[in-house]
Design brief:
Blueprint lengths: L15 H16 L3 E3 L1 H10 L2 E7 L10 H9 L3 E4 L2 H7 L8 E5 L7 H15 L1
Parallel strand pairs: 2-3
Antiparallel strand pairs: 1-4, 2-4
Helix pairs in contact: 1-4, 1-5, 2-3
Length: 128
């Protein structure tokens, strides 16, 4: 997928380095039960205040499937980012099909804490 194929409303868009970080974080966070898949579950984690950050697919058709998430993230001061491919996001979440949005959740004494915080800082830099 090229930059031209991505919806201009999908901002901020993860660069190649951040995309790799997100893909590498997906499987372990799924194993540690710190990953919630789908727009509904991502919304739920935001409302409960347990979301570290939100990742959405920039190629979701229509993009209006997830328009409430960036607004809710800004409301709750939770960083968010768009990834180019819903298929890659699904793969990162450990499912065979596409995923439009996912949430990495807070867990005390998690072994992924350093990796999650590093990724969160990278996302926050894009939002500034």
């Amino acid at each position: 997928m090229t930059e031209a194929d991505v919806n201009p409303k999908a901002y901020p868009l993860a660069d190649a380095r951040l995309t790799k970080k997100l893909l590498d974080l997906g499987q372990p966070s799924c194993n540690y039960k710190q990953l919630r898949k789908g727009a509904n579950e991502a919304t739920e984690t935001l409302n409960r205040g347990i979301s570290e950050f939100i990742v959405m697919a920039a190629d979701a058709e229509p993009l209006e499937i997830t328009p409430h998430l960036p607004l809710l993230c800004e409301d709750k001061n939770v960083p968010y980012v768009f990834m180019c491919s819903k298929q890659a996001l699904g793969w990162a979440c450990g499912v065979s099909g596409p995923v439009f949005a996912c949430s990495i959740t807070i867990k005390e004494r998690s072994q992924l804490k350093q990796q999650i915080q590093s990724t969160q800082r990278s996302i926050e830099k894009l939002l500034v």
